[in-house]
């Protein structure tokens, strides 16, 4: 029952990226990773005030959407 759904769209100078996946909640680590923090920092450096990152975690799935305004 594992899945990963990916969507990438470009509209002019705007790029929309969405990804959703499920996971086994019993396999979650108690220690947080650094991946999302690194991603957020890099987006702030490369796309200051021109990006939107939304992360939604439910009981057994993630949904992430990223919008980039490029020039």
List keywords for this structure.
17% helix, alpha+beta, single chain, 4 strands, four-stranded antiparallel beta sheet, 71 residues, 1 helix
**Percentage of helical residues?**
10-25%
Question: How does the major sheet shape up?
Answer: 4 strands, antiparallel
Estimated share of beta-strand residues? over 45%
Number of helices: 1
> Which stretches are low in confidence, meaning pLDDT under 50 for 5 or more residues running?
none
The averaged pLDDT comes out at 91
Give an overview of the whole structure.
The chain has 71 residues and is an alpha+beta fold. The protein is 17% helix and 46% strand. It has one helix and four strands. Strands 1-2-4-3 form a four-stranded antiparallel beta sheet, with helices on one face. The protein is flat, with a radius of gyration of 14 Å. It starts with a strand and ends with a strand. The relative contact order is 0.28. The model has no long low-confidence stretch (mean pLDDT 91).
């Amino acid at each position: 029952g594992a899945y990963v759904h990916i969507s990438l769209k470009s509209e002019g100078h705007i790029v929309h990226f969405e990804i959703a996946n499920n996971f086994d909640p019993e396999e979650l680590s108690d220690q947080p990773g650094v991946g999302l923090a690194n991603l957020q920092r890099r987006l702030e450096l490369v796309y200051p005030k021109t990006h939107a990152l939304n992360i939604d975690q439910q009981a057994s799935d993630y949904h992430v959407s990223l919008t980039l305004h490029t020039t």
